[in-house]
Amino acid sequence: MLTLSSIFWTAIAVALVSFWWQGDKVKSTALQYLYDYCRQQDLQLLDQTIVLKGVWPRRNDHGSLQLRRRYGFEFTSTGEERYQGSIELSGRRLQSIQVQAHILPDNNDRLQ
After folding, report:
1. Beta-carbon count within 10 A of 9 CB
2. Which of 50, 83, 101, 105 makes the best surface tag, with the fewest CB within 10 Å?
3. Is 87:97 a contact under the CB 8 Å cutoff?
4. C-alpha distances in angstroms, 87 versus 16, 68, 109, 112?
């Protein structure tokens, strides 16, 4: 028999799974944005991973509540030094990509 307690805990479990599922989709979208950005800027995304740095609610242009997520990542421009960067998404829309100041390689030192 269903009790109020079991309905409550089931709803909590469903909400957590949904949050994780949506977060995974957003993370995949962020990775795709980063691959494209790194290719355009002649950079290499290191470890092919990004790390969630923060999540907070915000209103979008239409007044709806969305989650804004910030991810951190590491990249290189020459293959020798590691630099930090961050990408921020609101929902699945790209808000910004910021990269640490880095060495611009000569034509001979470009990443392959």
Report:
1. 11
2. 101
3. yes
4. 24, 11, 26, 24
